[in-house]
Amino acid sequence: MGYVPQKLSVAKDIPITVGEFLQIKEIDMTRIMEVLRMVGFDRGTKHTVHRGSRILTSKIGVLSGGEFQRVMIAFAILGNPHVLLFDEPTTGVDVSAEETVYSLIDNLKKEKDLTIIFISHEIDVVNKYAENVLCLNKQKVCMGPPSKVMEKKTLEQLYGPDVQIHVHNHGK
Amino acid sequence: MGRMFKYMYTIMENNTFFLILVGLLVGATSGYLGSFMVLKRMSLVGDALSHVALPGMAIALTLSINPMLGAMVALTLALLGIWYIGEKSEIYSETLVGVFFTASLALGILITPQPELLETLFGSLDSITFWDGLFTALLSATVFLLTRKYSRRILLSVVSEDLAQSTGVSVSKVNLIYLLLIGLVVALGVKFVGTLLMGALVIVPAAAAKNIAKSVKSFHVYAALFGALASVVGIIVSKLLTISSGPAVVLVAIIIFIASYIFKQK
């Protein structure tokens, strides 16, 4: 199983480079480059500085939130897991990077046939990406496909009374 | 073989070159281990830790046992305590460490035999016998190699304990091994640097290395290099000026730290 931790639970002031960090898990550099490509480090459009092999010599402390999370995902994939566990991977990541991380995870699921367990409190994300949802608030509240189980009653149990789903339309 | 050994023994006893060589090994190992300590944000623990050696050495001196052995036992016990506290609570109990370590320093000063007190506190090159030196050199090298062996696991557990756990690393076991290695290297260094200042030889070279490191590899290399340099230069200075070796070594380390800080600003 591969694990992607919350951004804030990782010490960032360590002078470790992305290459060294990934080498903790995998010695083969070609495999590391392959995985880095998988998490989008050669088709990045905005972060030209960190593209390709230059990412390897960057310290993890200088990465942007989205880059950092993608490196964490790369680390998780390196062990060739069947299951990936994400623990609120977008905590502390800015909104635009958040979307990149979600679509990356979505692509990984399609390409690699992975089971993905994703912990999140954001209803819209759950609605958009999840096939099945298990809602917990101290105890099991509901389980099933989000469209079926995420209704007003269960949401009240999860988030407290007076919640309602408000569908945002981001112009898509 | 026996005769050759005896020959070596006579040239090495109180030989400055031999002391420098042993000091180099201790310094490099201290710096290398210290680099993890700085990352683990345990600098203050590392610094105060060396005080614990004092009562152990005092008891050993009173019983006419090798003080290095006494230091080793005292440090091992203290580190087991630190480890236990770390396992039981989320954070290291800094206050407890502060109270416990200063208490052992006070106690140690009281029970250390008066003639040996100064050299135990500040280090004394003259009290290092050939066997001390040989033992120290071999054990330093062993500690260095063991640290290398565990370095990936220690590193990962510093980056994120959760992440280390998820890859099958037993963080608590790695922490224990690491702390015991620290105890060993501090015990090895106390004769050179003394119980008051040995912690500085663990922390200061690593802190200097962190200023200029561009990767973990360079961080480790610089830390070991600075530790070795501080020991070697410090020992030479202390021999030339006939001053205590502890302050000499630590001040050289501090000069390296200042230089690295200036270099970093540029």
CATH architecture group name of chain B: Orthogonal Bundle
Overall pLDDT of chain A = 77
Radius of gyration of chain B in whole Å, from Cα? 18 Å
Name the shape of chain B in a single word: globular
Shape of chain A: elongated
- Main β-sheet description of chain B: none
Structural class of chain B: mainly alpha
CATH classification class of the largest domain in chain A = Alpha Beta
The helical percent of chain B reads: over 70%
Overall number of strands of chain A: 5
Largest sheet report of chain A: 3 strands, parallel
Name of the top-level CATH class of chain B:
Mainly Alpha
Strand arrangement across the biggest beta sheet of chain A: 1-2-3
Q: What is the string of helix and strand elements of chain A?
A: EHHHEHEHEEHH
Task: Give structural attributes.
heterodimer; A: 172 residues; alpha/beta; Rossmann fold; 2 domains; two-stranded antiparallel sheet; 7 helices; 5 strands; 39% helix; 14% strand; elongated; B: 266 residues; mainly alpha; ABC transporter involved in vitamin B12 uptake, BtuC; 0% strand
Strand and helix map with partners:
The complex is a heterodimer of chains A (172) and B (266).
Chain A: E1 2-4, H1 18-23, H2 29-38, H3 65-78, E2 83-87, H4 95-112, E3 115-119, H5 123-129, E4 133-137, E5 139-144, H6 146-149, H7 152-159
Parallel strand pairs in A: 1-2, 2-3
Antiparallel strand pairs in A: 4-5
Helix pairs in contact in A: 2-3, 3-4
Chain B: H1 2-12, H2 16-39, H3 43-49, H4 53-62, H5 67-88, H6 94-111, H7 114-122, H8 130-159, H9 161-166, H10 171-193, H11 198-212, H12 216-241, H13 245-265
Helix pairs in contact in B: 2-8, 2-10, 2-11, 2-12, 3-6, 3-11, 4-5, 4-6, 5-10, 7-10, 8-10, 10-11, 11-12, 11-13, 12-13
